């Protein structure tokens, strides 16, 4: 005989009981209502982290305007603080996806370091997700469906109800006389997931009563296979992840030659693993872009455009450039006091280490034909010097050049060993950070 729902949930929560705080994504529907009631009840008998509920109001349908008041009443009755967050859903090809993106952005804002967000997806949701992705031709990563836990912002997203069926949650709700919201959009068959939930899965379970359990089990097998593929990818990344010659450049990069030594399937595996935190992954047909990037001639500068940025190649190295990298202004900027660091719009910070030259100075960007005075070598073409340094081409247009009048006075020391000091000071450039968090 199975332990009761509360005992099983408490066991699933064991790894997270030392977190600074617990948040629950509380929509007011059946799943999150049962989860909230369970957590609040356990808190009466167990020592648990502080519990807070978060309700995200999307503003997509009139009926939803009444839901915050319902959620507040439920939380008040259970003694759980509620945070209401209103979001704007950007229109796009998939309203479901846009709403989900907006919702998770709100959740990330609500979370602190090490904190946990619980969501109410259950076994039926897992089976539905697997079937939905199977019909879209997903690979192992997609068919692993929803993981029990994953990183989110500075904390963790945890789905503690994946081992529970919807019928178990309904029975618990009825036993405790819980009231929940029925979202009208959840029965609209125009949405693919609703069609699967109300038309396809009932037919499957009529013929195969254990279909939902078996589908969820398949997702577990796929998650295990994904874990093995990720371990292989980590081994391959150790070889390809050797540091670049430009450690100051805040962009992810890999050495190309170790990747070339792998089979095509293994190359795709390691790149999927590497790209997952950086961008939405390409579909099968789009991987031809990787082949073109990999096989281009050494003097070419090919790129592979992806959903949230692009991969560029420079010599025998590939670099990831997020969309934010291209957002900077190349207009000239005056530097009235070189004693103080200068913030460059979308391009980091410029400063002098040691003694700074007298101002005012001007920061400009490459136009072509610049000549630079190199100690012991005389006047040299800046383009040739950059070629000698091996600086990737996509960085060169962002390289800040410091002028006094029409004289090119200084180039950042990161550009190469040929850079000279100016009045006993060294020009230093800290490029724009490109940290990027994407699920």
Automatic annotation (TrEMBL):
It is an enzyme of class 6 (ligase). It catalyses: cytidine(34) in tRNA(Ile2) + L-lysine + ATP = lysidine(34) in tRNA(Ile2) + AMP + diphosphate + H(+). Keywords: ATP-binding, Cytoplasm, Ligase, Nucleotide-binding, tRNA processing. Its EC number is 6.3.4.19. It is found in: Cytoplasm. Its main location: cytoplasm. GO terms for molecular function: tRNA(Ile)-lysidine synthase activity. Residues 361-429 form the Lysidine-tRNA(Ile) synthetase C-terminal domain. ATP binds at residues 27-32. InterPro entries: Lysidine-tRNA-synth_C (IPR012796), TilS/TtcA_N (IPR011063), tRNA_Ile_lys_synt (IPR012094), tRNA_Ile_lys_synt_N (IPR012795), tRNA_Ile_lys_synt_subst-bd (IPR015262). The N-terminal region contains the highly conserved SGGXDS motif, predicted to be a P-loop motif involved in ATP binding. Belongs to the tRNA(Ile)-lysidine synthase family. Ligates lysine onto the cytidine present at position 34 of the AUA codon-specific tRNA(Ile) that contains the anticodon CAU, in an ATP-dependent manner. Cytidine is converted to lysidine, thus changing the amino acid specificity of the tRNA from methionine to isoleucine. This is tRNA(Ile)-lysidine synthase. It comes from Pseudomonas asgharzadehiana.
